[in-house]
């Protein structure tokens, strides 16, 4: 699939999954919902891989890499984001998550020796300034008892975990692990990790038969997990974690648009200016001209 289509698919799917995550909150514990989601996605991928005759036998080292991928990208970061979504509007959660552009570049430099240019530092500063403006009411009166502050901290933690998961995926692909099989096993490990976490913490494995819950669960499992992660992690392997994360520049636009319609998100001048700074910072970090050149080469 061409790089441009992978980008469009990633943006449209993941820009809307934030609202679907919000719909999961209520009757079923977040840990259980995440386990359901990735168990369903893993089952779909495993059946597909076997039916297509894809090789499914890997070494213990390979499984260790896929298990780490599952813990970071298919479970650990999600439980944090589910908690944040219970506090904040999904659009704001997506805005903070767009900072993965910066964390991917930082971890890429630390773990893989990728160079960091002055443009990156300027973009990071611009994006952080935008987040500070959006969350200024919470930042100016920092208090762990305030929901906004707690939500912001949770989103930052979730973004870091997701970024580390991206690095694991890059490393797995560099070692020759195919994306589909790695996702299938990784999601299996992630679902197992969440199920064990739910059991240890005494969560009940309930199920909400309502149309909202089942519909959002199917959407998250099929589109958000099978297709969304398939598109995005393929981009990681083709053009690198920093360039692939450029897709997150558009997440907040779609997510905040949905929040405006479905969650009555109120646009203040500060929120509007802050989001523009976040988007502008991401554009500075990734250099669109270089991205277009990379797309042409990869396609």
What does this protein look like?
- There is one protein chain.
- The protein is an all-alpha fold.
- It has one domain (3-298).
- The protein is 79% helix and 0% strand.
- It is globular.
Brief overview, please?
By secondary structure, the protein is mainly alpha-helical. It contains 14 helices and no strands. It has one domain.
Please specify the SSE layout and strand pairing:
Layout: H1 3-24, H2 30-51, H3 60-85, H4 90-97, H5 100-112, H6 118-134, H7 136-139, H8 147-174, H9 179-200, H10 211-239, H11 241-244, H12 251-262, H13 269-286, H14 288-298
Measured between the Cα atoms of the first and last residue, the distance is 8 Å
Largest sheet descriptor: none
List the secondary-structure elements in sequence, H or E.
HHHHHHHHHHHHHH
| Model regions low in confidence, pLDDT < 50 over at least 5 residues | 290-299
Mean pLDDT: 81
When the domains are counted, the total is: 1
Feature tags:
single chain; 299 residues; mainly alpha; globular
């Amino acid at each position: 699939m061409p790089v441009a289509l992978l980008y469009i698919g990633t943006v449209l799917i993941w820009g809307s999954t934030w609202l679907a995550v919000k719909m999961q909150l209520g009757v079923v514990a977040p840990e259980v919902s995440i386990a359901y989601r990735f168990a369903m996605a893993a089952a779909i991928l495993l059946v597909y891989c076997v039916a297509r005759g894809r090789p499914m036998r890997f070494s213990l080292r390979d499984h260790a890499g896929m298990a780490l991928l599952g813990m970071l990208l298919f479970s650990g970061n999600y439980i944090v984001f589910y908690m944040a979504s219970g506090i904040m509007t999904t659009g704001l959660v997506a805005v903070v998550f767009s900072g993965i552009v910066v964390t991917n570049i930082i971890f890429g430099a630390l773990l893989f020796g990728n160079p960091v240019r002055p443009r990156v530092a300027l973009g990071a500063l611009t994006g952080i300034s935008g987040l500070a403006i959006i969350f200024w009411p919470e930042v100016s009166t920092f208090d762990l008892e305030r929901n906004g502050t707690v939500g912001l901290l949770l989103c930052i933690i979730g973004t870091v975990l997701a970024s580390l998961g991206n690095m694991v995926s890059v490393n797995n692909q560099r070692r020759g692990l195919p994306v589909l099989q790695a996702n299938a096993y990784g999601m299996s490990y992630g679902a197992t990790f969440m199920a064990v976490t739910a059991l240890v913490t005494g969560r009940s494995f309930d199920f909400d038969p309502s149309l909202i819950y089942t519909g959002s669960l199917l959407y998250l499992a099929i589109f958000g997990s099978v297709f969304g992660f398939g598109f995005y992690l393929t981009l990681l392997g083709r053009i690198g974690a920093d360039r692939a994360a450029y897709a997150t520049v558009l997440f907040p636009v779609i997510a905040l648009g949905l929040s405006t319609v479905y969650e009555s998100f109120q646009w203040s001048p500060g929120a509007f200016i802050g989001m523009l700074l976040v988007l502008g910072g991401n554009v500075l970090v990734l250099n669109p001209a270089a991205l277009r050149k990379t797309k042409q080469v990869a396609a």
